[in-house]
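FYI - complex with NAI, inputs then prediction.
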Amino acid sequence: MNDSMIRDISLAEEGLQRIRWVGKFMPALNALKRDFINNQALKGKTIVMSIHLEAKTAYLALTLQSAGADVIVTGSNPLSTQDPIAAGLVNQGITVYAWHGCTDEEYTMFLNKALDHMPHIIIDDGGDLVHLLHSNRTDAKKNLIGGSEETTTGIYRLKALEKENKLAFPMIAVNDSYCKYLFDNRYGTGQSVWDGVIRSTNLTVTGKTVVVAGYGWCGKGVSMRAKGLGAHVIVTEVDPIKAIEAVFDGFEVMPMKKAARYGDIFLTVTGDIDIITEKHFMEMKDGAICANAGHFDCEVSRKDLERISDSHYEARKNIEAYILLNGNTIYLMAEGRLVNLAAGDGHPVEIMDLSFAMQALAVSYLCEHEKELRPQLYLLPRELDEKVAEIKLKSMGYEIDTLSDKQKEYLGLD
Ligand code: NAI
């Protein structure tokens, strides 16, 4: 075993079994993997990944390793790391610093340990690696070509750095590629949030009032699937355009202060802070369930819940019951962390196939364009989105039409 820090290497076979399963359902990433194995495009490159450490991200790590890269993996959230997967990766020669339920101090130590490897490329999910590389670990930029960012919250943080002219190396906004957000944020979050809630609660969604905070890409998916499961859906928003979109999609829209009275299940997906706080908990029905799927655990205020509670206890795995001073019980799922990852297995495999094909292409793109790239935030070219979409369509047995020369001329295309 390399100098990895994981919970238990004897879990490796269980982890490898899960990783083998996802590998069967990732045709787009597998197509890239075949090219990677042939051309060894990442030979000599060290890649540090801070990601939700579960089977699909593990398969991405192994794909990059198959291209010749030395891959170092750490988590991007203390509760989303799966110990068998960490063990499986170590068994395959990947260095891992992560265990499920690590403390905040351990989490930061793991990120630092990963950066000690002086990466050429980083893959970030939420911006914690980038943050360290701009604060305490500027030394670890020594060999850095650049990196890619997986999620919306990480992009917000990168845009803030770019605006202040502080972004120190090129970053690719993988989240903003069509083959990422249109599928992962919308359909991925839409399915996996309900998977996490349903398997943890063993309750129905049909007949319940579900309040979804935020009608961005994730919120649209969560609302659409809640409706499909038979719920009455209320959306809360701050953007009037998103709000009117929600109305036209057939949902009720109102402020959280009012929605708090009606909801049976609350789901926050805003990327913002303080969406559900004391004033909302005090309005809620006895037995209301709160969960978050935004990147950080600051959307549903656990601090407020603790302050206004008499006592709390574990009601079921991943569900804490808070007995409020007014006598009502409010349930909080997964400590207010990403419910689909902390209380489930994350997005469906076929969807992450698209996201991680884009991640693999981002890594190749950084290496191929090292000389031209500047310290700024980049989008991957549309051709790469089209390439991934084409592989995926083909693997699913779909064909589409192509433009004739006459049509191209008519449309003014080359
Ligand atoms: P988005 O930017 O498309 O949508 C966010 C929406 O929240 C916007 O419409 C915005 O107007 C709204 N909003 C902001 N503050 C609000 C407030 N105080 N009250 C009500 N609405 C508010 O972002 P996206 O892609 O939907 O991502 C949302 C969050 O989910 C981010 O933190 C992102 O990193 C995370 N994410 C989580 C995933 C998961 O697996 N759970 C997957 C992908 C993204």
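The chain has a mean pLDDT of 97. The pocket of NAI is lined by residues 151-153, 181, 185, 189, 213-219, 236-239, 242, 269-272, 275, 293-295, 338, 340-341 (CB under 6 Å).
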